[in-house]
Amino acid sequence: MLMLVLRGSSLAVAVGTVIPIITGAMADPAFVIPDILLALLLVVGALLPDKGARILLTGANAYALGIFTVAAATQVVTVGAPSVMLVLAVVASALNMVLIALIARARKVS
């Protein structure tokens, strides 16, 4: 069950990452390539079998948390505050990392 939630939330982060690129709403073009790579990793990870998915989604969500945190910090410096969507992306990636820890813990217990 937790794995299904992780797959869904990772796909949601991937879609939310690509939408600003497609619509031209991305504030900083320096993040286009990392965001496309991130979305690709999240989608592929969500589609892999469980063991591969756990491994790839761990790395991809950690990468997402790093990218979104740097982007949010950049917006704080340049604009004064990060966008709401970027804050939501940071929170979603952080919650995915917590979910990954819960999945790993559940596997050790059972």
UniProtKB/TrEMBL annotation:
The chain crosses the membrane at residues 30-48, 55-77, 83-104. Keywords: Membrane, Transmembrane, Transmembrane helix. It comes from the Bacteria. This is Uncharacterized protein. It comes from Brevundimonas kwangchunensis.
